[in-house]
Each structure stands twice: as structure tokens, then as C-alpha cells.
Amino acid sequence: MKRIFVLFALILALAGSSAGLAATATAVISGTQPGSSVGGKVTFMETSEGLHVRANVSGASAGKHGFHIHEVGSCADSGKAAGGHFNPDKMDHGFLPKDGIVHAHAGDLGNITADAGGSGELDLMIPSVTLADGPYAIAGRSVILHEKEDDFGQPVGNAGGRIGCGIITLDE
Fold it and tell me: Which of 69, 26, 39, 25 is CA-nearest to residue 164?
């Protein structure tokens, strides 16, 4: 009987320790054109405040580049297979961390600014978006790095072509 109790306590302890782990996902960005030097990595972590997004890119031209979550998890056809911005509620284009889910696409992450060497970083907290559950789940979708600055104009920010793409994959 004592062994069963110890085994049961061990199972409960293990279940409790894994339940506290935050869900995470990663997207590895590659250039959309043959021979492109564009690359990077995006990490996503669910928190009590929303989804924490950290992105590092390299190989981009100096300046601002639109950065969005797109609706389809494919980088085929020079990134065009990723479809449009992730926008399940059919909202106007905006900046999700500022405008919120009721005034922006669920995939509107603004811009990444690349320095003279082509490297840039982004660190955002985005509300309402999740990795795997609910209408704003992004696992299996794509992130797109655009050639130009997102000017927040309608309908999608005038950020131009797709120079980098990565598929958002849940971490194990």
C-alpha cells in the first residue's frame, strides 16, 4: 500500500510540474527568393498578459520592414502561399499591441527595424492571441517579413513584397 501511495504522489508531482510550463512555439525565417541572405528566428510564449513575441532577423536592407502573422502555414511560391494577414474577425489593419484585437488584424505586429548591417529585433506582447486554442490561435500559420515599412494604411499596410517567411511550429 505504501508503494502505491508513493507512486501516486510521484505521478501527481510530475503532473503538477509540467502543468506550470508555458506553451511555446518557434518560426525559423528563410528568404523567399533563391540566394537570399534573409533569415531569422521568432519565438512565441504564452503568458498571463498575452503572447510574448521575440524576433531576430538578419540579411534585410536597413530600415523598417512590416512583420505579420499570415493565415496559412506555407512559405511556397515566394511566400505568397502564406495568404493574407491572419484576420479571423475581418478587422481593419492596425498595430495589435496598441489597437487590440477589436481594432486590428490578429496578425498585425508592426515593423522590425534593421540596422545598417541588416539585423533587427522585435520584442512585443500581443493581447488575445494564443498558440493552440481558440479563434486567435497561430500555431501552424506563417510569419512574413516584408520588403518595406508597414505604414498602417488600409487594407494591409503597404509593406510590399515578402522577403522572409517562417512557419509557426509548437515546441515540444
Answer: 39
